[in-house]
């Protein structure tokens, strides 16, 4: 191999190594989906990404379903969830690495599912923000 090919290979290797280090250190997220529908109202949650299906979970009132993961090198990690209550259900993007980077305090993304919609908890402002209405 010529010296320019070796240089290019070294640069690419260094870039990938740094990307993986950054992903491992900065890229671990914890997502929480809380049932805040009201007493005796259960929430069904089924979340998945392109690579992972987290299964179907029954979440009682004031409980949560949560998971943790690393984002990929290109920061294209996306988790969507089918959420259902009594007679209404919907499909929502709960985590999008490009959207949520910097919005989740201490890399914890918290969602509150309420009667009128799905709220993202803005930990910096300490308030719920309506992001999705039920269909």
From TrEMBL:
Origin, by domain of life? Answer: Eukaryota
Query: Per UniProt, which keywords does this protein have?
Result: Secreted, Self-incompatibility, Signal
Q: Where in the cell is it found?
A: Secreted
Q: Does the keyword Transmembrane helix apply?
A: no
The UniProt entry, under InterPro entries, shows: Self-incomp_S1
Q: Which Pfam families match?
A: Self-incomp_S1
The record's Gene Ontology cellular component field reads: extracellular region
The principal localisation class reads secreted
Stretches of the chain forming a coiled coil according to its record? none
State the signal peptide span: 1-27
Family, per the entry? Belongs to the plant self-incompatibility (S1) protein family.
- Recorded protein name is S-protein homolog
Source species: Nelumbo nucifera (Sacred lotus)
**Higher taxonomy:** Eukaryota, Viridiplantae, Streptophyta, Embryophyta, Tracheophyta
